[in-house]
């Protein structure tokens, strides 16, 4: 290595400079491929994306292949056999086959011995036993907790459940990492886990994982669980250590304020290990194309915290603020003979726009425009460039609006680090038409928190645990996850029956604290009824949340119960003021 390159490694280094410096191909010490959250089913057909990943890893000459958990969607012995089969097919005739390393996570224990719910009492308690069986079905070399040495580098493997029955505790977790660091002086130590360290991509920052990992700057932490797109630079993080999220090979939710949406993902990573750096490249398994080939993720070694190029503060300062083209306006049109909502068309602000803040205004009796709700719309950055369009369109559901009201919209582009560009002018005014699909009204409450109560999620219905509002009607802070109780058997119906819940609510959450998730869950938190949407930071002002639920959704994993409450997950600081609630049956019986 020449002195110029050494000088850059020792000083402040941006990703763009790194890409230019290391444009010349150098043979790495070794290369590994990594994927996560494959969530295969019981058949070979469900392993289609996994097979494409194996074919890509073969074409790139990977020495190791890592899956960081949720290999299958449930404990599926036939699915693990199918996983082996597609690996054999992808490497048919190969002189050498890569070693596979597996992380064992929660979904691979669901359904083991008939358990179907994620609870301490059944699924988690049986997970160690289930993971041993998964290892056998996969013919995997590694168990759920181990350290693997490869060409002088340590890979420390952990299961999802630390500190539970059958698994090591946090002291041993730390000791295993410390031993690997001591055994690998001057080299990175690759820690493979499923759950992200708290505070990296959300959640509370003072979790045991984060506190332990922060003691070891050599750690490069690979994980999954959250589901994401590898097109996002947010999936590489540096603080007191380095963390890499491998995206997913299933579908992912964008964690948008006010709405829950999911999209398919086809991304994997390859990692070239050099003495002085890691070169991380992103790939689309559908056609084997590299994602942003001129912008690989380059991690200089050894790690120096105050010079790490992927620190959030550095990336936020470097990242462009997206802007609309000059004169851009938002357009809205009513959709459907039976009003379904407004299609709102937003001009694209380019791939730097991670999302758009779409605001709805209502004209009051005095003729003034007043904001009454807003939601986020995902940008098109996650699509291949050839699939991006000049506009982004989002449906604002009819349930947000009252027939006869006059409304309009505006939008602002927001980059991945939350920095917004200039807002558009308001759209033309439009009158909300009659005829929206309101469904069969099951419940309407002007004040559900007062009528049904807010409780700790594991103490729903216990009068002595019910939260009380302050003089202005605000609830919180709670100090833990909570639930608005709802009447029993409100969600009774056959598989495929669809429900819709509309909740008006204000929230006040400090910047930097984890954003809360809203979703339907069974009292006690055992089973999920719906996807999640998130609340915003700061003082939200009036907001309306629309949550959809289908009985037996997500392959039968959600919506199977008859009784749910509105769960507030990942709560920490902040408070809420729930307002009007409507629950409707909109299809099926």
Keywords:
589 residues, alpha+beta, Immunoglobulin-like, Jelly Rolls, 3 domains, seven-stranded mixed beta sheet
Please outline what is shown here.
By secondary structure, this protein is an alpha+beta fold. The chain has 3 domains: 3-20 and 29-318, 4-Layer Sandwich (Purple Acid Phosphatase, chain A, domain 2), CATH 3.60.21.10; 331-431, Immunoglobulin-like (Sandwich), CATH 2.60.40.10; 440-587, Jelly Rolls (Sandwich). The model is unreliable at 1-23 (pLDDT under 50).
Count the beta strands.
Answer: 32
Low-confidence stretches: 1-23
Estimate the mean pLDDT confidence. Answer: 89
Rounded to the nearest angstrom, the distance between the terminal CA atoms is 69 Å
> Which geometry do the CA atoms define?
globular
Q: Sheet bearing the most strands, described? A: 7 strands, mixed
């Amino acid at each position: 290595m020449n002195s110029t390159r050494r000088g850059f490694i020792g000083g402040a280094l941006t990703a763009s400079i790194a890409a230019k410096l290391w444009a010349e191909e150098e043979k790495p010490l070794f290369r590994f491929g990594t994927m996560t959250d494959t969530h295969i089913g019981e058949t070979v057909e469900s392993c289609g994306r996994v097979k494409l990943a194996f074919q890509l890893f073969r074409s790139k000459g990977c020495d190791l292949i890592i899956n960081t958990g949720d290999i299958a969607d449930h404990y599926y012995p036939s699915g693990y056999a199918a996983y082996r089969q597609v690996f054999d097919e992808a490497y048919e005739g190969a002189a050498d086959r890569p070693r596979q390393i597996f992380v064992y996570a929660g979904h691979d224990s669901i359904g083991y011995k008939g358990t179907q719910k994620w609870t301490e009492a059944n699924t988690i308690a049986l997970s160690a036993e289930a993971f041993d069986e998964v290892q056998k079905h996969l013919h995997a070399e590694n168990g759920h907790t181990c350290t693997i040495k490869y060409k002088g580098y340590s890979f420390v493997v952990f299961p999802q459940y630390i500190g539970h029955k059958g698994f090591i505790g946090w002291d041993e977790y730390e000791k295993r990492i410390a031993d690997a660091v001591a055994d690998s002086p001057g080299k990175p130590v690759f820690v493979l886990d499923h759950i992200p360290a708290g505070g990296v991509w959300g959640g509370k920052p003072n979790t045991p994982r984060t506190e332990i990992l922060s003691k070891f700057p050599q750690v490069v932490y690979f994980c999954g669980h959250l589901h994401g797109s590898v097109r996002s630079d947010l999936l590489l993080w540096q603080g007191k250590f380095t963390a890499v999220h491998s995206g997913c090979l299933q579908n992912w939710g964008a964690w948008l304020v006010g709405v829950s949406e999911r999209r398919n993902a086809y991304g994997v990573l390859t990692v070239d290990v050099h003495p002085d750096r890691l070169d991380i490249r992103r790939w689309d398994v559908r056609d084997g194309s590299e994602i942003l080939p001129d912008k690989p993720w380059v991690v200089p070694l050894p790690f120096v915290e105050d010079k790490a190029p992927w620190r959030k503060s550095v990336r936020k300062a470097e990242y462009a603020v997206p802007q609309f083209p000059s004169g851009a306006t938002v357009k809205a049109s009513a959709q459907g003979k039976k009003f379904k909502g407004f299609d709102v068309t937003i001009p694209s602000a380019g791939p730097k726009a991670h999302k758009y803040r779409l605001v709805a205004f209502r004209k009051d009796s005095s003729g003034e425009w007043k904001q009454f709700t807003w939601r986020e719309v995902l940008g098109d950055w996650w699509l291949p460039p050839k699939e991006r369009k000049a506009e982004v369109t989002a449906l604002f559901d009819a349930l947000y609006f009252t027939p006869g009201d006059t409304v309009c919209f505006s939008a602002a582009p927001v980059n991945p680090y939350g920095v917004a560009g200039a807002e558009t002018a308001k759209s033309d005014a439009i009158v909300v038409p009659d005829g929206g699909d309101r469904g069969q009204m099951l419940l309407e409450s002007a004040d559900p928190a007062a009528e049904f109560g807010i409780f700790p999620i594991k103490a729903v219905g216990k009068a002595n645990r019910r939260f009380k509002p302050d003089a202005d009607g605000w609830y919180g802070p709670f100090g833990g996850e909570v639930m608005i109780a709802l009447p029993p058997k409100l969600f009774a119906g056959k598989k495929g029956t669809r429900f819709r819940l509309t909740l008006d609510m204000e929230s006040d959450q400090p910047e930097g604290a984890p954003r809360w998730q809203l979703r339907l869950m069974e009292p006690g938190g055992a089973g999920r009824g719906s996807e999640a949407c998130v609340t915003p930071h700061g003082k939200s002002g009036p907001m309306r949340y629309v949550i959809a639920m289908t009985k037996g959704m997500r392959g039968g994993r959600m919506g199977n119960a008859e009784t749910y409450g509105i769960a507030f997950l990942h709560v920490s600081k902040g408070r809420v003021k729930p307002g009007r609630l409507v629950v409707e049956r909109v299809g099926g019986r």
